[in-house]
Design goal:
The complex is a heterodimer of chains A (about 200) and B (about 150). Chain A is an all-alpha fold and about 200 residues long. Chain A has two domains: about 10-95, Orthogonal Bundle (Rna Polymerase Sigma Factor, Chain: A); about 125-200, Orthogonal Bundle (Arc Repressor Mutant, subunit A). Chain A is about 65% helix and about 0% strand. Chain A has helices spanning about 10-20, 25-45, 50-65, 75-95, 125-145, 150-160, 165-170, 175-200. In chain A, helix 2 (about 25-45) crosses helix 4 and helix 6 packs across helix 8 (about 175-200). The longest helix of chain A is centred in the C-terminal third of the chain and has 27 residues, at about 175-200. Chain A starts with 10 loop residues before the first helix and ends with a helix. Mean pLDDT of chain A is about 85; it is low at about 105-125. Chain B has helices at about 10-15, 25-30, 35-50, 60-70, 80-140. Chain B is an all-alpha fold and about 150 residues long. Chain B has five helices and no strands. The longest helix of chain B has about 60 residues, at about 80-140. Among the domains of chain B are: about 1-50, no CATH class; about 100-145. In chain B, helix 1 (about 10-15) packs across helix 3. Chain B starts with 7 loop residues before the first helix and ends with a helix. The chains are: A mainly alpha (about 200), B mainly alpha (about 150).
């Protein structure tokens, strides 16, 4: 079982301990932020074999640059920035595209002919649970088909529950661009969803 | 119903928080089953996305990172060094001040010690010599010359 730092220990105290020579305190920083880092690395990097090295590289950078962190943002946001930049550098090195520039502009005409998915059901009966599993599988596959940046934004906003402002800080993108990309990503997911259900109807 | 259907942007906003919609769009949504269905779709999408299992490595990332951290340089032992310098300083000062007296005292001591050691050594040698002589006589007395 992992030793968790008491919740009363603030990020500032942890950083001070590490800078004071208590390297073991860095483990608590890793534990507090590894969910975010792992999520971002998995979403930005398609090649599974490269993910562990990148995640470790992120934390080595965090450790080396910890003295330069001045708490102008949350520690997790700063770690997220390092993760994003490290992954971005990897993608550039491999000549991989972060977001497809040929993609169509946001918003569109209506989709009159398309039907909505069955409405969410509050009670979790077995049939609903199966339906939810089915949806999760479809959505997971749909997210994997998105460009790396869209996948990352979906994960940060809907799974990590970060705000637009925090995502903008991590990615160094303007708030409006984050909202716009997120909008496009969700729209693509919805189209994938609907296409899947229409296929099933045939 | 004459008002246009909600745009994609408005549908997504409504799926997050209906109260963010302008009054006209909110009124349209209230009376339009098509737009309600689309909002439901987005809500289902968001709910499912939030419930997706988080990605995770198959190894302990924390342990792996900690194993790779650079080994911290041992801190210079300032206290030990200070105490050592202080002791050496005191000894040096003592020798400077009382070195001559100490030398004289040890010189006298060396003479007495040397004499004592010479007496002891002489005694031991003499005793060994006597022992050898006694043994020799005993063995000679055992010999028979017929």
């Amino acid at each position: 079982m992992r030793h968790q730092p008491p919740s009363s220990v603030t990020d500032q105290q942890l950083v001070a301990q590490v800078l004071g020579g208590n390297t073991a305190a860095f483990a608590h920083i890793v534990q507090r932020t590894e969910g975010l880092v792992t999520q971002m690395v998995f979403k930005m990097i398609r090649h599974p074999a490269d993910r562990p090295d990148l995640a470790q590289e992120v934390y080595l950078k965090v450790f080396k640059n910890l003295a330069g962190f001045k708490f102008q943002a949350k520690l997790s946001t700063w770690v997220g920035q390092i993760t994003y930049n490290t992954c971005l550098h990897y993608l550039e090195k491999k000549h991989l595209v972060l977001v497809d520039p040929t993609e169509s502009a946001p918003d569109s005409a209506g989709e009159e002919g398309r039907r909505a998915l069955p409405p969410p059901v509050a009670e979790e009966d077995p049939e609903t649970a199966l339906f939810s599993q089915d949806l999760a599988g479809i959505l997971g596959a749909a997210i994997e088909q998105l460009p790396p940046l869209y996948r990352t934004l979906i994960a940060l906003y809907h799974q990590q529950e970060l705000s637009y402002e925090e995502i903008a800080q991590i990615t160094s993108l303007p708030d409006g661009t984050v909202k716009n990309y997120l909008f496009r990503a969700r729209k693509q997911l919805k189209q994938h969803f609907l296409a899947h259900y229409q296929r099933d109807d045939l | 119903m004459t008002s246009p259907h909600l745009s994609e942007q408005a549908l997504q906003e409504a799926a997050e928080t209906v109260s963010l919609l302008p009054a006209g769009q909110a009124a349209h949504l209230h009376g339009c089953l098509l737009c309600q269905g689309r909002v439901d779709t987005y809500q289902q999408l968001f709910k499912t996305a939030a419930q997706l299992p988080p990605s995770a490595f198959s190894f302990d990332l924390t342990a792996s990172v900690m194993a790779q951290l650079p080994v911290p340089k041992p801190a210079f032992p300032w206290v030990l060094s200070g105490v050592t310098a202080l002791v050496l300083g005191i000894i040096g000062l003592f020798l400077t001040l009382f070195g001559g007296l100490l030398l004289q005292a040890f010189q006298g001591l060396f003479t007495q010690l040397g004499a004592g050691l010479a007496v002891v050594a002489g005694g031991v040698i003499a005793w060994q010599g006597l022992e050898l002589l006694v043994q020799h006589r005993r063995q000679m007395s055992l010999l028979t010359f017929s």
